[in-house]
């Protein structure tokens, strides 16, 4: 079976592509022209150059594929021009799904995010049924993913799109090349460059378990349904203590209040805009606002329906730190 994987050179996408090849799929990887392809080294796959903002490239890429794994997304928490996030995450997703319908793709797995889900008032783990609204979404990334998932669900209902939706939590592990916001935090903590922290809570999952969850969704998921692909719920303090223990450092002890850090984030973002920087600032307003929430989730539905399993968070942190060390991120 031939499967198209979008975002195949990225963190989750490359893990999905590798797992598909291991399972006997013929993989076609959609990669932006001139984009780094380090994560695909050693992966036997066909390269299709294209972009989610180029509708013709999507039509060509999906042609002849029986399965589609749409993993690509713009996951930046800050950009100088937010409209670019919506073009990629919402418009690009819609165009790709329509191309899949026209190409008669038999199965689509769409990678959404737990960012689209509601959170419980008391901080207890949320699930796929926890209510959420667009007005609850903090920042352009979360809003764009919420709108994209809404569009995918609509196409499943109204146009017969054979899609299963997966909602990964905070993946960590090898091949986090850029790295992701969670990966950057791990790198800074492992290097002893995080003297203080703002408390929050995350659901941490190994990227390879997320990849396996994609294959399970393809094989066993119910069309139109969504499944959380998560791991272990941990406070940021616990994550930092675990990282410190792995690398043999002392964890940060200073906990900063959110209301102290938020004005700093506004100032840092302001300087970034004045400098016309395209790089995400070290601290962002949306990042601080998100940190006020405990982003805890449970994946009982994926376990029950898909047969999904996730390894302990410490194992994921160990694999991430090993990869960062071996690839020169830790100095």
What does this 3D model show about the protein?
The longest helix has 20 residues, at 83-102. Helix 1 packs across helix 6 (207-220) and helix 2 packs parallel to helix 3 (83-102). It contains eleven helices and twelve strands. The protein has a seven-stranded parallel β-sheet with strand order 3-2-1-4-5-6-10, with helices on both faces. The chain has a domain at 2-175 and 204-232 and 296-312: NAD(P)-binding Rossmann-like Domain (Rossmann fold, 3-Layer(aba) Sandwich), CATH 3.40.50.720. Strand 4 (67-70), helix 3 and strand 5 (107-111) form a beta-alpha-beta unit. With 331 residues, it is α/β, with parallel strands linked by helices. The mean pLDDT is 94.
Which labels suit this protein?
331 residues; alpha/beta; Rossmann fold; seven-stranded parallel sheet; 12 strands; 43% helix; globular
Please provide a brief summary of the model:
With 331 residues, the chain is of the alpha/beta class. It contains 11 helices and 12 strands.
How many strand elements? 12
Distance from first to last alpha carbon: 42 Å
Mean pLDDT: 94
Main β sheet profile: 7 strands, parallel
**What is the strand content?**
15-25%
| Low-confidence segments | none
Query: Which percent range fits the helix content?
Result: 40-55%
Strand order of the largest sheet: 3-2-1-4-5-6-10
- SS-derived structural category: alpha/beta
CATH architecture of the domain at 2-175 and 204-232 and 296-312: 3-Layer(aba) Sandwich
* CATH class placement of the domain at 2-175 and 204-232 and 296-312: Alpha Beta
Order of helices and strands: EHEEHEHEHEEHEEHEEHEHHHH
Rg from alpha-carbon coordinates: 19 Å
Instruction: Output the CATH homologous superfamily of the domain at 2-175 and 204-232 and 296-312.
Output: NAD(P)-binding Rossmann-like Domain
């Amino acid at each position: 079976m031939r499967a198209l994987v979008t975002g195949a050179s990225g963190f989750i996408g490359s893990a999905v592509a590798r797992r598909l090849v291991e399972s006997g799929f013929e993989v076609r990887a959609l990669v932006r022209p001139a984009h780094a392809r380090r994560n695909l080294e050693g992966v036997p796959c066909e390269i299709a150059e294209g972009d989610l903002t180029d509708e013709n490239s999507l039509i060509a890429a999906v042609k002849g594929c029986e399965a589609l794994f749409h993993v690509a997304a713009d996951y930046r928490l800050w950009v100088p021009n937010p409209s670019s996030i919506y073009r990629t995450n919402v418009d690009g997703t819609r165009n790709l799904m329509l191309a899949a319908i026209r190409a008669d793709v038999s199965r689509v797995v769409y990678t959404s995010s737990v960012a689209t889900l509601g959170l419980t008032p008391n901080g207890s783990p949320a699930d796929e049924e926890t209510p959420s609204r667009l007005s609850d979404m903090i920042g352009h990334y979360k809003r764009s993913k919420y709108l994209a998932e809404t569009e995918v669900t609509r196409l499943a209902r109204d146009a017969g799109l054979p899609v299963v939706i997966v909602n990964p939590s905070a993946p960590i592990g090898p091949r986090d090349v850029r790295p992701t916001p969670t990966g950057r935090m791990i790198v800074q903590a492992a290097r002893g460059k995080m003297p203080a922290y703002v408390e929050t809570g995350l659901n941490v999952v190994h990227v390879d378990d997320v990849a396996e969850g994609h294959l399970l969704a393809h094989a066993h998921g119910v069309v139109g349904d969504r499944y959380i692909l998560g791991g272990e719920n941990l406070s940021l303090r616990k994550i930092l203590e675990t990282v410190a223990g792995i690398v043999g450092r002392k964890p940060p002890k200073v906990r900063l209040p959110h209301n102290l850090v938020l004005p700093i984030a506004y100032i840092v973002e302001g300087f970034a805009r004045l400098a016309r920087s395209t790089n995400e600032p070290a601290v962002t307003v949306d990042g601080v606002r998100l940190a006020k929430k405990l982003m805890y989730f449970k994946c009982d539905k994926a376990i029950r329906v898909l047969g999904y399993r996730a390894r302990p968070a410490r194992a994921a942190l160990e694999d991430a730190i090993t990869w960062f060390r071996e690839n020169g991120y830790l100095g």
